[in-house]
Write a structure and sequence with these properties.
With 177 residues, the chain is α+β, with helices and mostly antiparallel strands. It has helices spanning 2-18, 166-175; strands at 61-68, 73-79, 84-87, 90-99, 109-119, 128-138, 152-160. A hairpin with a 4-residue loop joins strand 1 (61-68) and strand 2. It is elongated.
């Protein structure tokens, strides 16, 4: 009986200490740290794809997915080559995105990304930015290169770009009706 009274008293004190108000949520960190800022690759205003066709690299837009496995929060982020984006303790830098032409088989979409995570190497040290991935990620072959991190997963969803001849095919098919 004495143990029950002590338990009730402890629970009462714990509830009284709560104050009834939940803590205010912390603001999400979105500024890319100075040590991770790099100048954008020299794309030039009219830089084209390597074969001289397609959308200039500077005009492409990649859609990447990111999940925080601790809280199961998933986000889609859109980025242009040369951009870096911070989401809490992860910074993603997109260097390039590519997509096979619609008439080519098999279809493939890929992006060259770098993933840096702010984490502590051990319990007694300060958090430091560590590069956990640098390479190509492929939409249709996610197992080929994998961002191996216990908290974050990053993958390619799309690379928005145009190819020569697509505009003509769309306009000619709509005129033939």
């Amino acid at each position: 009986m004495k143990a029950l009274a002590v338990g009730v008293a402890t629970l009462t004190l714990a509830l009284a200490a709560c104050g009834g108000e939940p803590p205010a949520p912390e603001a999400e960190q979105t500024e890319v740290p100075e040590e991770l800022r790099q100048p954008a690759p020299a794309l030039g205003e009219g830089a084209q794809a390597a074969d001289g066709q397609g959308t200039p690299m500077a005009e492409r837009v990649a859609t990447l997915g990111i999940v925080n496995k601790r809280n199961s929060l998933t986000r889609d982020i859109e980025m242009k080559p040369g951009e870096a984006r911070r989401i809490d303790d992860v910074v993603i830098r997109l260097s390039a995105c590519e997509k096979t032409a619609p008439w080519e088989d098999p279809p493939e979409t890929g992006a060259f990304v770098q993933v840096n995570v702010n984490e502590r190497p051990d319990a007694d040290s300060e958090a430091v930015w560590t590069r956990v991935f640098s390479g190509w990620l492929f939409k249709n072959s996610p197992g080929l290169n994998v961002v191996e991190h216990p908290i974050y997963d990053v993958w390619v969803k799309d690379c928005a770009m145009r190819f020569p001849g697509e505009e003509e095919a769309v306009s000619s098919s709509s005129n033939s009706r």
